[in-house]
Amino acid sequence: MSAPPAPIAFIDLKTQQARVRPQIEARFSAILDHGQYVNGPEVAELEAALCAFTGAEKALAVASGTDALLIPMMAMGLGAGDAVFLPAFTYNATASAVILAGATPVFVDVLGDDFCIDPADLERRIEAVNREGRLKPRLIVPVDLFGIPADYEAIFGLAGMHELMVLADAAQSFGARWKGRWAGAIAPVTATSFFPSKALGAFGDGGAVLFRDPELYEACEEVRWHGTDSGRKESVRVGFNGRMDSLQCAVVLEKLSIFADELESRRKIAAIYDERLSGVVDPQRYGTGCERGHGLYTVALDRRDEVQAALKADGAPTAVYYSQPLHRMKAFAAYAPEGGLPQCERLAERVLSLPMHPYLTEDQAHYIADRLIAALAD
Q1: Using omega within 30 degrees of 0 as the cis cutoff, is the peptide bond preceding 322 cis?
Q2: Structural domains of the chain, ranges and CATH numbers in brackets
Q3: Predicted TM-score (pTM) of this structure
């Protein structure tokens, strides 16, 4: 067995930082000069740049991806007795935001091929909540897991049929497209994250709420700034400090300037994986009209833990997102559906994410594929 072609990083932030460091340092110097560390001009500049890239009508830079979910939920007036439907195979922030908003999460199973919310199971659970009458269905939160858009055609159909709102969780899918629309301009309201490891990340926490339909924009802006009106004089609703600071906005602005180039590099690596691993693992598939954002490259396979250990020994780092579905976590046990969620539970035992970043070389991608194929053959 040959050695890996140079050490392989699961996510390479150092090379990216070197590429944009001079520009970021110049922006930091400008911020130190003007002294507007909160709500400096970089905030509005980033919001405008996000709209220009995604086609969204409006954008709000916020303090984290969790805040990007919570702020619109609060602006919608969610509270006790409201049901919010979301997949159980995702990061815990999606469910936590629902509970923090005072609503009740209703966990939905996912599809075994795209790993995103299952529209058929979603419909069953909406109808079950209606029959029971204890909760009022209010919101669907589809998650574009690992950078692949959910089935929005089916989701929008169900939302219209049952008069539900849709808030897309695009924390992992900035750069994805559905029917020509970029993530951020697919759903009426979209939450995204700028956690450093995301395809578009900050040097700390950050996020954004993007609006195709700006109806909720003003309310979200008020929630973000302690619930105050535009003059910052009176509290007109309950809110909190959900602002993204000028320094983090400056970082994301510079990373956004190279994002299209990085996305193309991610596509090339994904194409190598697609070709080399076809018929070897179960890929995360995506529907007609969808383009991946390549936030992560995730497959499903048997003997996952054994294969992961073999890859680690060969110098090929991997990660597991997620080894436990939300309905099996202690914090959310009270909301676990009777009978469980079979696909969520099956995927939690089989998913494996491979290195995916713009600075992975083609030789490294081929090496990772070689070692994965060998590990499965043993």
Answers
A1: yes
A2: 16-108+115-257 (3.40.640.10), 258-377 (3.90.1150.10)
A3: 0.97
